[in-house]
Design brief:
3 domains, LysR_HTH_N, seven-stranded mixed β-sheet, single chain, transcription regulation, WH-like_DNA-bd_sf, Arc Repressor Mutant, subunit A, about 300 residues
């Protein structure tokens, strides 16, 4: 059985958007045409692919399997189109980069600037998400470059150590730790509220593992979904946090945060590039990789 690729595209768009009307808008065709196309496709493959509910549509088990392969197929199609454009001395096309939050906010802008100056015809798209989400986007062929802050255990991905990042304990200036000129023992954190990122964050995982190894368990934790918001919460006296040193220079300079040394606990983490083994790399991705591995637009964080 040969799949009708036009009908496959209609079905995949419905799955991605969650409704026939949104799929019709995305493809610029009528909703009846979408509905008929999906019905014809289900007849062709011989099974129901979508469950239709009052709240929208969702794929059946068979639909989920087919959609997964379809996304990979259409990602390969986009990659072929991008490669054909970019083969002309990288004069056109696009590059989709995924980076976890700290990397995207504080570390990648100089690399993007270097790439843009060298290849101004390439459209850059930066996706910011936590480590697990970036890994999923890479597996789904939605991005060509993936830079993350935490280790990813996935047999379908290859992790390459990229940079080393030092983590620092920050407090507000009135905090009792702020005057400790010789630093503190890590055990002192057991009496504190530790402000942490959301589950799936690479920085949260690294800090949790380091503290668990030393038997340190904070009195309570406060979960906040961004490093910027964590810094503001610490400055407001809501607790202490352990964050990337690359993220704090502005607030330390302004006197809103203090860095406190931990005498017996030094937390460093490796930043990673994720790759899918065997995937054909478009030239724009290869050019960006050369920049992040060879060019050093700023000093290492370590």
């Amino acid at each position: 059985m040969s799949l009708n690729l036009h009908l496959l595209r209609l079905f995949t768009t419905v799955v991605r958007t969650g409704s026939f009307s949104r799929a019709a808008d995305a493809l610029h065709i009528s909703q009846p045409a979408i509905s008929k196309g999906v019905r014809d496709f289900e007849l062709q493959v011989g099974c129901r692919l979508l469950d239709r509910t009052p709240k929208g549509v969702r794929p059946t088990r068979e639909g989920q399997a087919l959609a997964r392969h379809a996304e990979a197929l259409f990602a390969a199609e986009r990659a072929a189109e991008d490669e054909l454009l970019s083969l002309r001395n990288l004069d056109g096309g696009s590059l989709r980069i995924g980076a976890s939050t700290t990397i995207a906010t504080y570390m990648i802008s100089d690399y993007l600037g270097t790439f843009h100056r060298k290849h101004p015809g390439i459209d850059l798209h930066l996706v910011i998400a936590n480590t697990r989400d970036i890994a999923d986007l890479m597996l789904a062929h939605d991005i060509e470059i993936a830079l993350v802050e935490g280790p990813v255990e996935d047999d379908e991905l290859e992790s390459r150590a990229w940079r080393t990042d030092v983590m620092s304990l920050i407090v507000d200036p009135p905090h009792r730790f702020a005057g400790a000129k010789r630093g503190i023992e890590g055990a002192a954190l057991c009496d504190e509220t530790l402000i942490v990122r959301e589950p799936g964050s690479g920085s949260r995982e690294v800090v949790a593992q380091a503290m668990a190894a030393e038997g340190i368990e904070p009195r309570r934790t406060l979960e906040i979904g961004s490093t910027e918001a964590i810094k503001q919460a610490v400055a407001a006296g809501l607790g202490v946090a352990i964050v990337s040193s690359a993220t704090i220079s502005d607030q330390v300079t302004l006197g809103r945060l203090k860095v406190v040394q931990m005498r017996d606990l030094q937390i460093e983490r490796t930043l990673w590039q994720l790759k899918v083994p065997g995937r054909i790399e478009i030239p724009a991705a290869a050019a960006f990789e050369r920049i992040i591995w060879q060019d050093k637009p700023f000093a290492e964080v370590a």
